[in-house]
Amino acid sequence: MNKINLSDISTRAPEGMDKKAVKAVTQEIVQELDELQNLLFAEHKHAVLVVLQGMDASGKDGLIRNVLGNMNPQGVNVRGFKAPTEEEKDHDFLWRIHRFAPAKGMIHVFNRSHYEDILVQRVHKWIDDETAVKRMQAINDFERLLVEHNNTAVLKFYLHVSEEKQKERLKERMEDPHKMWKYNKNDSTEIKLRKDYLKMYEDAIEHCNDVKWIILPSDQNWYKEYVVAQTLRDTLRSFRMEYPKL
Amino acid sequence: MNKINLSDISTRAPEGMDKKAVKAVTQEIVQELDELQNLLFAEHKHAVLVVLQGMDASGKDGLIRNVLGNMNPQGVNVRGFKAPTEEEKDHDFLWRIHRFAPAKGMIHVFNRSHYEDILVQRVHKWIDDETAVKRMQAINDFERLLVEHNNTAVLKFYLHVSEEKQKERLKERMEDPHKMWKYNKNDSTEIKLRKDYLKMYEDAIEHCNDVKWIILPSDQNWYKEYVVAQTLRDTLRSFRMEYPKL
């Protein structure tokens, strides 16, 4: 198999898609998601885990707000994974992740995830390649556990954003008063590591493949939101759920 | 490989061992364990997980009290796994187990464990063989995660007890006022399933073998305690630990 090359993959919607029409469809899907999530909660047989991975300013937060914000928060749980605490560091890297695996009936969203342990940690050379390979195997085993032993649909999205768009959004953080809170003094150093990150993402997508990745062109929010909404809708529909009888 | 046959394996100490002499040695080891555990806690590089599995009245509780009771409770954590709660049942079977995996510096003891999910559940036919095989694979993956990703030594003991000794101890529960609290109305039905349990233990020992099992002759408490104390001591010594300098 040829190694995936992210630089060859577009960060934009396919040609000819109409933004206004797509946004209207997304709105319809988002309404349907509300009903499907209620059914998931009621039937209590399946679980859904949405993993969002992408570089800084790839648009994870807006995606969560716009696609998942219409569902009942009782059945949706969003968890961000930042730098691990001391207690978390004293355990294997999946310990803190497994705790937040979705129960049956729930949709959990990971805003960053266990993949940071083979991305940021590799880019900064905090772990060697041998450890990274072992972690990839452990990640495959872990995701299989969720799929096979708790009826979990795992949807993994890599938010693929161009360098130009990334820089544009990071600049906004310094200028827009509503976005300044997102500014991080490491933003400027991290973006210089973009090529290294792309390489590590390619490795992750290639090797952590028991559950397939969806490469999500992420320069345009309307397209990204459409794809995620549609994928989640199709996944939930595929469960062929029914409300339990008395 | 020939399938292991537990009925062929002795439940008693090897011939010629002197009970009094062995008990004296065990006492010395138990003293050393206290010091080694302190070093483990101080050095903070390794973790130890002791898994105790055995049928009713195989002597798990006494073993914990006599071998591990002399160590500083700050560094030792004993967890019993009974029937899962509703919340636990809504997750994969390893979810509740992983939460109690030992942090670096800690010794955790599982009084029953994730193995119940391929023992009691199979004996009572709550799961089919296909599910059992998948769970065995998941258990191997899980134990490898602890070993490779958190420097955990996993010591798995199967407490091998004869039918006579088992019945004798269960009878004591009905007669000795200090033991009546252990009486369970299911004891008498479970012991009738002894042969089925042995078969499922054989399967578990054969297939969940990435981390080796120690088959522990358990009719005599003094011998069982000696073997566990010695194994734990040798494991801790093998870490070649040192107190951190300033």
UniProtKB/TrEMBL annotation, chains A, B:
Q: Which UniProt keywords apply?
A: Kinase, Transferase
Q: Which GO terms describe its biological process?
A: polyphosphate metabolic process
Listed GO molecular functions? polyphosphate kinase activity
Q: Does the keyword Cell inner membrane apply?
A: no
In terms of domain of life, where is this protein from? Answer: Bacteria
Pfam families linked to this entry:
PPK2
Q: Which residues form the Polyphosphate kinase-2-related domain?
A: 18-237
The family this protein is said to belong to: Belongs to the polyphosphate kinase 2 (PPK2) family. Class I subfamily.
Question: What's this protein's name?
Answer: Polyphosphate:AMP phosphotransferase
What is the protein's species of origin? Chitinophaga ginsengisoli
